[in-house]
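During the reporting period, we have paired protein sequences with backbone structure tokens. One record among many follows, to show the layout:
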Amino acid sequence: MANATETTTETRERIVAAAGGLFYARGFNAVGMDEVRTAAGVSLKRLYAEFPGKEQLVLEVLAARRRRWEDGLARTAAGLDDPRQRLLAVFDFLEEWFREDTFRGCGFINAFGELGATSPAVAAAAREQKRAFQDHLARLAVESGADESLGAQLALLAEGAQTTAAIAGCADAVGQARGAAEVLVDAALGRR
């Protein structure tokens, strides 16, 4: 159970971390609030005080996942001055992630697949994350001197690699996606 000195923020973070791990490992529909309560070490009353319903908890888990995704992308590209390398850094990040023992594909695609038809808020969160990822890559493309459409093309390669790696159960898809991305980037930047 939560200790007496723990802040509301710390309790919420612990609940979100516990729920995120369970949802990602087993699926959103397969995990109930009682299981989240147990994993987080809080009372059911406290869990519902923080998250009145499962949808609110799922949305907070997705928000935390998005922050980790964006931080990971930034960390992987940090210190890279070459525009080509900054564009391809996303595939380095994906390779690192795909090799984790807990990798189960994109949490946003998983959430959309399970809940998107019944939860407009979850569908919107998934769509917004995908749009933000494309926008991020489009900004990098423009900064490198390429057309912004390169961002959407690279995002599609990254998304396909995530799905393929999750279904196939191996990280090899990222190498194939990176190879295709290198061809696109080099063509867009006028390199051979």
